[in-house]
Structures are given as C-alpha cells and as structure tokens.
Amino acid sequence: xxxxxxxxxxxxxxxxxQAQNRFFTKDAKINFNSSTxxxxxxxxxxxxxxxxxxxxxxxxxxxxxxxxxFRRALMEEHFNENYMESVKxxxxxxxxxxxxxxxxxxxxxxxxxxxGVLTMHGVSNEIILKAxxxxxxxxxxxxxxxxxxxxxxxxxxxxxxxxxxxxxxxxKIDAAYTPYQP
Amino acid sequence: MKINSLKSVIILGxxxxxxxxxxxxxxxxxxxxxxxPQTIYAAATFKATRIVNGHSVEQMKKKQxxxxxxxxxxxxxxxxxxxxxxxxxxIHFSLEYGLTDWLEVGIGRSTYQKTFxxxxxxxxxxxxxxxxxxxxxxxxxxxxxxxxxxxxxxMKNAYSRMSYIHQILIARKFNESLSLQLTPTVIHRNLVPxxxxxNDLFAIGLGGRYKLSKRIALNVEYYYVYRPNEKAISQSxxxxxxxxxxxxxxxxxxxxxxxxxxxxxxxxxxxxxxFIGKTTETWSNMGIHLGFNISRVFSFTx
Lengths: 182, 302
Description:
heterodimer; A: 182 residues; alpha+beta; Lipocalin; eight-stranded antiparallel barrel; 9 strands; B: 302 residues; mainly beta; Porin; 4 helices
C-alpha cells in the first residue's frame, strides 16, 4: 500500500514537471497587412492562444478568424464572409517545431527557424519562418514576421478587387508566454 | 503478498499509462481545450441595410457612413414612347450613419412628393450561436416623413404633411444562403386624402434573401397592407385612387465597398410612407418599375 502511494506521488511529480515545461498565452497579438497603394488593409487580433513546449521545442498557435478587428466594419464583414469563410473554417492554426538550436536557460535573444504547418481556410501548407525568442524562467517572448499568399490557401480574390489587395500578406506575431497551468 | 505486489504492478502500469496519455497529448489538442466557446454573431444576414425598398436588420456599425442613391424608373407598361418607363424616374438619396454599433440614424430626400425623411434604427437583439444562443435579430425602426410638395391644397400646414412609421424587424439567418425577415408595421398619417382612408395603417412585411453566389444574392420583399375600407372606397363616387400591396424582387451585387441592388417593383416610392401606404400600380397589369439602389460606405474610424 505504501508503495502504491509512493507511485502515485511519483506520477504526480512527473506530471507537474511536465507542466512546467510548457508556456502559454491566450492574448498573443497577430497583425496582418495586405495594403496596396489603393487601399489600406490592416487587421489585428489580440486573442491568439499559443503554447510552447521547451522540452520538445514545439510551438502551436490557434486564433479565431472572427477575432480580427478592422478599421472598416464592411471590410471585416467581407474578410469573414467572402474570404476566410469563418463560419465554415472558424480557426487559423499553426503547429511547428523549432529546428535551429535554442538554449532555453540562456535568457538571451535568439533567432530561430520554425518549421511547421499553417492551416487556414481549411487548407494546410508547410512553411518555415524566422522568429526571435527571448527565453526566461517565468516568461518567454516571441516575435515573428512572415508572408503568405492568399491563393495558396484556396482564398480566391475576384479580379475586380485583385489590384486593391497585396499579392503577399504580411503577418506579424507578438506573444508573451507564462508557465502553463493546465 | 505475491498477489498484492502483482496488483500494485498492474496499478502502477495503469498510472504510468494514464500519465503517459497526459504526456503524449500534443500541443494542438491542449490548445483546443484552452479555447473557451465563443459567442458567434450572425453577420451579413442581408447584404445591405435594405432588403429591396424596406429596411433589413442590417445597419451601419459605429462611425460608418452609408451614402445611398436609389432610383426607380417609370412604369414598364407606359409604352415604347416612354421607352418602357426609362424616360422618367424618381430618385431618393440619403446619408445614414452609425452613432454606435446598435444605433443608426439617417436623413434622406425623395423626388416622390418632394419628401424629406429621417429615421432612427435600434438593434435590440442580435442572432448568436455558440456560448450564447439567440435565434433571431430584433430591430426597432422609427421613421418620419415630411411631404413638401406644395401643389396639394389640402396640406395647409406642416402638421398635415407629416407621417410617422414604426417597424419591428424580426429576422433570422437560417444558413449561409437563406435569411428571412418579418416586419410588422404601423404608419400614422396626420392627413389622409379621403374620410375612408385610415390615418393609421397596419401592414406586415415578408422579406427574404437567398445567396446565389458569394457576392450575388436574390431578394424578395412583400408587404401586406390591411385596408378595412377597401370595399367602401371602390364603391364611392368619384372613385379615389386604389392602392396595392408592394411586391419587389431584387438582385444584390457586392463589389468591395459598394453594394449594388437592382430590382423590379410595382412601387415607385422608396420610403415606407410611399411604398407601403401609396403604391398605385400592380404587377398584374405590368405596372412595374426597374430600379436600383447604390450604397457606398465611408469609415470614420482610425
């Protein structure tokens, strides 16, 4: 019986140690810009949820496409209705792995490559992006900027407005992680 | 003792198995657990703030200005001499602004009886799903019209030129394609042409839109107007003008910042007092008008 309790305590410790190796935030900022000289198209969400596993060097993002706020209400409606089809595909996701070396204890800025799969509008594409990470004991900061092509995700843009929307959309992410409490 | 240790081994195995499951749970499914169910608002129940002639539950969001131009040509049955109505037409234009996300106000002017109008539109309920569930949109519309045409000798003062419209807009977006709206309406006219015409007019509107593609939708709108004195009116001499219920069929075409609506309707007036209260043509004798609404939205947010 004593042994049993011991095992139990052991497994709890294992679980706890595990938990501390994950960092989490649910208010990461994602900002995208597909402006052209004709039209300013900028939107931001500060409701992206993201997790980092510093044991496995894995990183995951998830954001509701309806959480993006635009300057123009009509643009926001078109973004959700015509382009992202948010009712059918409510989330945009990224699941990736940090493929360059990173020392999580260093607390120094590191530039890393992250390779993973970006899923939006129901279409998945493999991408490699550069990220800047500042590790820390109780806080991890990460920023990145990368470009995507809407057509690669099955988002068709009618020819009438094609010139008003940038061919490549620039996405910026800014996340401040704290230890994950399940 | 042996049995006991066997038991503990099994239990240990189970615990390890269980904790392994927690271990191996990938980040993706952990993220899914962290995302709380959201309230999803049914957006774009209609493409524009009008179904065809009458208001839809859509309205301008905060600091968005809608500049609308509407036009209805003459009767199609007016013959080739008038190029089937294209030679003449009525116009209405308006500026409509969202003071908040739930309150829109607008002013307009129509060539029909040289009418000025103003309205306030209040969104009371919005259709939602997810964390909060609300099956319908509910909106209250108050509108007032002032006829400035000065050839009508009966209209002696400003009071007699006024009419007031109250509407409750009840709509539901059933799916991505289909939305329906029910619109109970009360119109009070301070002055009516004859004794038999009622000052208070009750009507109910039925409207629907069906999306043909992402950017094109088909709209149908009908108002049933309750006229208890219809029989007496038709028997009185001289026979006063007979009024009909308005039926309109339109197509919405959306192009970026514009919504273009093109329609066929038996009503030439474009405001509630006119098209609900005073439609004088009917589909049965081809008293139909070709028309369009153009909406251009300007944003005043930073």
